[in-house]
Amino acid sequence: SSCNVAIVGATGAVGETMLKILAERKFPIGTLHVLASERSAGGKIEFGAKKRVVQDLAAFDPAGVDIALFSAGGGVSKEYAPKFAAAGAVVIDNSSAFRYDDDVPLVVSEVNPEQARNRPRGIIANPNCSTMQMLVALAPIHRKVGIERINVATYQSVSGAGRSALEELGRQTAGILNFQDPDPKRFPVQIAFNLIPHIDEFQDNGYTKEEMKLVWETRKILGDDSIQVNPTAVRVPVFYGHSEAVNVETREKITAAQVRELLASAPGVEVVDEPRAGGYPTPVTHASGNDPVYVGRIREDYSHPRAVNLWIVSDNIRKGAALNAVQLAELVWAERTAG
Ligand code: A2P
């Protein structure tokens, strides 16, 4: 049997990649609806060899949709995800609208897939891109020796902020090389040739919301509220692929060699860790356009008796968003077809 799928936000950076990955993985699609705002309704987008006409979400009737993948922002999800669920669809939502609700599971397909089954509201939340790649790499360590505390600094590409952010980095880079004014619009200050220690809104505690997502989501996904997480999230002038410098304090000691061995057989992880020039993953050389979470620079923290350092790199649009959403769709569909 085949699955009727709707992509909400199909014209966006994540939506476009959802379509690409559904085709790559030969997801058994019956009817495919590509939805966006009325701004792009009537336009055409490619799916495999065929073209689909973009429909206006506001005018769309969700009856008959089996699975809906949402990536059109929190406001759109809040308004429309419950309507799709009420019409019988399972909603897989890439926004942060429902992630912290107790009755909405938050699932990384390699880490807590069993939780996707329990979805009383018909909604499964896709984690934030930074949490996603970090936990694909750290969950095996947590299971083996227990994680007490995580110190993480992120180096996040502009694609996480959508198509307009990709355009701003391109335009600014070319413009500055031609002595033009950077004219920041999508980011609060110039992003080309710069770094910005500010992603999402500032919170009362001085952290940004992007940073607090790493705290809240790590605890919810690993099911352990005792894990301490101390993040700094930074936007960098990279198009695709987030990187993270992570220090993990464990309950029991684990050596660098043990971490390497553990991660070598972990699902979704590829270890790239040789102490030579180029023997480590980077967004451009490894992550961009690829599925795995790459881990390198694995070493024991010489300032601490029970801690290791890792460098974690992944394509934020793929594993960080579209790929995990499609993997969740595969889980849901496997349940349905199993009876
Ligand atoms: P549109 O192309 O019509 O603006 P990105 O994160 O790359 O900026 O993409 C955001 C996605 O969400 C786009 O597909 C965009 O469609 C869609 N979108 C934004 N606002 C709405 C809305 N009010 N209704 C439906 N789709 C929306």
UniProtKB/TrEMBL annotation:
Q: Which residues bind NADP(+)?
A: 11-14, 39-40, 159-160, 182, 316
Q: What is its EC number?
A: 1.2.1.11
SUPFAM superfamilies for the chain: Glyceraldehyde-3-phosphate dehydrogenase-like, C-terminal domain, NAD(P)-binding Rossmann-fold domains
Which residue numbers delimit the Semialdehyde dehydrogenase NAD-binding domain? 4-119
Q: Which residues form the active site?
A: 129, 242
The catalysed reaction is: L-aspartate 4-semialdehyde + phosphate + NADP(+) = 4-phospho-L-aspartate + NADPH + H(+)
InterPro entries, alphabetized:
Asp_semialdehyde_DH, Asp_semialdehyde_DH_beta, NAD(P)-bd_dom_sf, Semialdehyde_DH_NAD-bd, Semialdhyde_DH_dimer_dom
Which residues does the annotation say bind substrate? Answer: 156, 235
Designated name of the protein: Aspartate-semialdehyde dehydrogenase
Name the family the entry cites: Belongs to the aspartate-semialdehyde dehydrogenase family.
- Give the matching Pfam families: Semialdhyde_dh, Semialdhyde_dhC
Annotated residues that bind phosphate are located at 99
**Isomerase: is it a keyword of this entry?**
no
Q: Which domain of life is it from?
A: Bacteria
Q: Which GO terms describe its molecular function?
A: aspartate-semialdehyde dehydrogenase activity; NAD binding; NADP binding; protein dimerization activity
Q: In which pathway does it act?
A: Amino-acid biosynthesis; L-lysine biosynthesis via DAP pathway; (S)-tetrahydrodipicolinate from L-aspartate: step 2/4; Amino-acid biosynthesis; L-threonine biosynthesis; L-threonine from L-aspartate: step 2/5; Amino-acid biosynthesis; L-methionine biosynthesis via de novo pathway; L-homoserine from L-aspartate: step 2/3
Q: Which Gene3D superfamilies match?
A: Dihydrodipicolinate Reductase, domain 2, NAD(P)-binding Rossmann-like Domain
Tell me, how does this one assemble? Homodimer.
Keyword vocabulary terms for this entry:
Amino-acid biosynthesis, Diaminopimelate biosynthesis, Lysine biosynthesis, Methionine biosynthesis, NADP, Oxidoreductase, Threonine biosynthesis
Residue ranges annotated as transmembrane are none
Task: Output the NCBIfam families linked to this UniProt entry.
Answer: asd_B, PRK05671.1, PRK08040.1, PRK14874.1
Protein role: Catalyzes the NADPH-dependent formation of L-aspartate-semialdehyde (L-ASA) by the reductive dephosphorylation of L-aspartyl-4-phosphate.
Q: Name one GO biological process term.
A: lysine biosynthetic process via diaminopimelate
